[in-house]
Amino acid sequence: MKITNKMGLPEALVRAVQRDQHNKPGHISVTTLQKGVKEIILTQRHWDEFEMDVADMVNMIFGTAVHKVLETEGETSFAEEYLSAELNGYTITGRMDLYDMKLKLVDDYKTASVWKIIHKDFEDWKFQGCGYGWLLFRNGFPVEKARFTAMLKDHKMTDAERDSSYPQKPCVTYQFPIGQTEIYDFQRIAAEKIDQIIAYEKKDDDSVPPCTPAERWAKETTFAVMKDGRKSAIRVCNSKQDAEAISAENPGSFVVERPGLDTKCMRYCLAAPFCSYYREHYGKENEA
Questions:
Q1: Total domains, the chain
Q2: From the CA atom positions of the chain, what is the Rg in Å?
C-alpha cells in the first residue's frame, strides 16, 4: 500500500500509519474473518495497488495511541499477546490487548462513536471476543468472558445532561460471557468462511461472489412521508405502498424515497475499486 501526504503533515504522522499487509498467505486474523470473502480476497490480491492519504487515517492514529497507553501488564495478565491456531488449512491469528489469567478475561480497548453505543451495535465486538476466546482455548488458556472498553471520540456532555438514553460518560464497557457454545459457534463460522476463501481465491476478481448485505453494512431503501414546513418525516416506511397510504391520510404531505446504501462499500472498503459489485452499483457509469 502506498501512503500519500497531500497536506504535508508531519512525518511522524506518516510513520504512525505505515501498514504492512495485514495477513500473510495462508494466515487470517480474527478481525479479518468478519469481512466478506470478496473483500478479503481482493484486499489480499491488490494490496500493493492501494493508495491512502495520511489525512484520511486519523482514526488509526487515535486507536494506536490509546493502545500504546494501555499496554501495561499486571501480575496475572499479559498484554499485546499474539496467538495462533490452525483451522481447515489456514492459520487464524489474533493479538489481544490484555488477557487476565486470574479472571479468565479477555480485555480489548476501542475508540468509537457514541452512535455505536446508542444503536447497541456490538456484533463485531462479540465476534472478535469469541474469536480471541477460541484462540485462548486452542492454546490451553482458560477463558470465561470478554470485556470491551470504548473511548467515545464524539461524546458531548451537554447531550448526556439532557438525554438519559445518551451515553452518560465518554467511556463505556460491553461485557459478555464466553463458554463452549460461543467458542464452537466461532469455529463453525470461521471454518465456513475459510472454506469459501479457498473455493474462490484462485478465481478472477469478478467471479468472486459479492459480500452479503450485512458485510456491506447495507441500509435498505426507505420511504419518508414529508410535509412542507416540517424538517422531520411524519413517518418513515420500508415500503412505498405503506408510505403512500399514510400520505393519503395527511393532506399536503408527499413521499420521498431514501435510497439504500452499502456504507462499507462506499466509505470503508479498500478493495472497492477492484470490485464488480461496487462498479455495478456505484461506478461512474451509474452516475446521473
A1: 2
A2: 22
